[in-house]
Design brief:
mainly alpha, hpI Integrase, Chain A, three-stranded antiparallel sheet, extended
Length: 382
Amino acid sequence: MYQRNGIWYLRIQRNNKRITVSTGTTSREEAEAFAQRMAIPAQGLQEREAIRKLQQRLIATLSDQADAIKLATIPIGQLYPLFRESKNRRPVGTRTLASYEGQFNQFAKFMAARHPEIRNLRDVSQTVADEYIEWRQKHGKSASSLNKDMNLFAYAWTLLGPRYGLEYNPWTKDKMARAKCRQIRREPLTRDEFERVWRLASTWERCFMGLNYLAGYSLIDITIMRWDSIDLPRKWISINRHKSGIPENVPIPDRLADILAVWRRESAPCNEYVFPDQIRMLKPDHDTERLSRHFSRLFELAGIKTYIIVNGRRYPYKTFHSGRHSLATNMMAAGVHPFLIRETLGHSVMATTMHYTHIGEAQIRAALNAAAGTVLPAPSRY
């Protein structure tokens, strides 16, 4: 409130707008009474708004409590549907969701066989969780698979806990130690190995290898590829990554476009899929095991070792998937920025891309020589 030319004025802030109102009086007492009368309706509006928000919070709280009560009647087998329908779940592709479903179903089968008396998720204790991981380990699961189970269940309990009353999470790292993994990475194919396989491959096998080795597509992405997603004149492929579900538009090299053009002429042009015969080799849930074994046999015919044995356990060494490792390694050796390699391979995090790159002795030596050249003076000539 302020005075101008003897008249008192009110300055009111409402809805982010400043309004000036004249009281029409020169008396301060009358002006203050006028201001009091103006404030009463505004205070009433604020009180009504506060009551409305309080009612909304109360309804939401009662809804959460009702959901928590409902959970007592939901069997453990409903863990995956609850996880899948959660709005706060991080987005993943269909293949990853299918893998999650298999992990949840395996846990539900274990609970039904070993602990039929436990039907509520809140009754899963630390002892039961430890017993499940030990049971999986006895059935030959690797340390990496065990860690994936524990991480997924820990995430599911954390995600659903606030809404469904899961107060105790037995899967977190502070309660359950993760298994130590022996890092056995697939090795990239050398140029000589790739040429040996190429000479033995048929036309469709060469298309698969070209899309994998030259463009970085995974086996499942290649198998379900459609002709309407390939623009041969522009040398462009539009595809949704099966694992992540992320749509991408990726250019392809000229050599790969020529290979696909040859396959288009040899195959039936009316087919919807690029590889209609090979898509029938997929198992339910788009499992590529049969196709992967087919290419492993082709690699072995070319004299390439496809697996190694460490401590009596068999690990993949050079398989069809090694083409993605080869592409990442070759791009890194050519000086391509890691961000572009990540975009080409369709990775969501850079750490995965770095796992795919294999640095050789020649690259390390060249880097050391380049670093030495910037520090040490040039050798004197005699």
